[in-house]
From TrEMBL:
<dbReference type="InterPro" id="IPR049561">
    <property type="entry name" value="NSUN5_7_fdxn-like"/>
</dbReference>
<dbReference type="InterPro" id="IPR042620">
    <property type="entry name" value="NSUN7"/>
</dbReference>
<keyword id="KW-0808">Transferase</keyword>
<feature type="domain" description="NOL1/NOP2/NSUN 5/7 ferredoxin-like">
    <location>
        <begin position="175"/>
        <end position="245"/>
    </location>
</feature>
<dbReference type="Pfam" id="PF21148">
    <property type="entry name" value="NSUN5_fdxn-like"/>
</dbReference>
<dbReference type="GO" id="GO:0032259">
    <property type="term" value="P:methylation"/>
</dbReference>
<keyword id="KW-0489">Methyltransferase</keyword>
<dbReference type="GO" id="GO:0008168">
    <property type="term" value="F:methyltransferase activity"/>
</dbReference>
<protein>
    <submittedName>
        <fullName>NSUN7 methyltransferase</fullName>
    </submittedName>
</protein>
């Protein structure tokens, strides 16, 4: 169940890129005609997205929204490197190009691992090979962008309104539903205590490795936001016994 999360550092299955591109196509920031140098084709109709499972859905949305955060930077990289326009890639696949470019730079321009069990998608394979062929030009374009804007990291390019939203979101506690079809509250508490977690009365009592039972929903647990990665690596989460709200 952790397969998609683990392979994220080496790339994703073709279906993840395809679904992320479909999502991105519907949420991307539209620009006025005069400034719209990167063409995305027609997105008047939302394309159908089919997910293999819940984890694939979550990863697809995360990848799409990551591309959205850095849409301006990614487009500038494509134009500055002369990798775009590419006349062999139709406008309808530009969203896939942008999504895969975000992932390529997130992997530090390393080659994507291909997994034997994954189903290959011709468009994803084509664009993946195309971007990797020009990885040096793209990396140089990224470096020029950072120098141009005096940016220590790509976080500089996140729009200010979105950056403030992320700061607020990152401070919010995490809510997890207990999947009572698989486990009871008592068993969850016992498991958490064995792993060093301590139950407190309310959110105001939070410290590291603490949690509280929601006051209104007895099958919901609340944790500090700082524990997100640790919680997502627990067997309770991997086995779908705790479900992130």
């Amino acid at each position: 169940k952790r397969a998609v999360t683990q392979i994220g550092k080496n790339g994703y299955p073709d279906s993840i890129y395809l679904n992320a591109a479909k999502i991105f196509q519907g949420i991307r920031a539209a620009k006025s005609t005069g400034r719209n140098l990167v063409q995305y084709g027609n997105n008047s109709e939302s394309p159908a997205v089919a997910f293999k499972d819940e984890q694939s859905r979550r990863v697809s949305y995360e990848l799409a929204f990551s591309a959205l955060k850095y849409q301006g930077l990614l487009e500038e990289m494509l134009l500055d490197s002369k990798v775009y326009p590419c006349y062999s890639i139709p406008d309808e696949l530009t969203s896939l190009l942008v999504v895969m470019l975000y992932d390529l730079q997130d992997r530090k321009f390393q080659k994507r691992k291909i997994f034997a069990e994954e189903e290959r998608v011709a468009e994803v394979q084509e664009i993946g090979h195309y971007l990797y062929r020009y990885k040096t030009k793209l990396a140089a374009a990224l470096a020029r962008c950072r120098i141009k804007y005096d940016a220590l990291s790509i976080e500089y390019f996140v729009p200010e309104t979105l950056s403030k939203q992320e700061q607020r979101t990152s401070a919010l506690p995490l809510w997890f539903w207990i999947n009572t079809f698989k486990i009871s509250l008592e068993d969850v508490i016992r498991d958490l205590e064995m792993k060093g977690f301590t139950k407190v009365e309310s959110v105001s009592d939070f410290d590291h490795n603490t949690y509280a039972v929601d006051q209104h929903c007895p099958d919901v647990l609340v944790f500090p936001s700082s524990l997100r990665e640790e919680l997502l690596n627990l067997d309770l989460f991997a086995d779908c016994k705790l479900l992130l709200q």
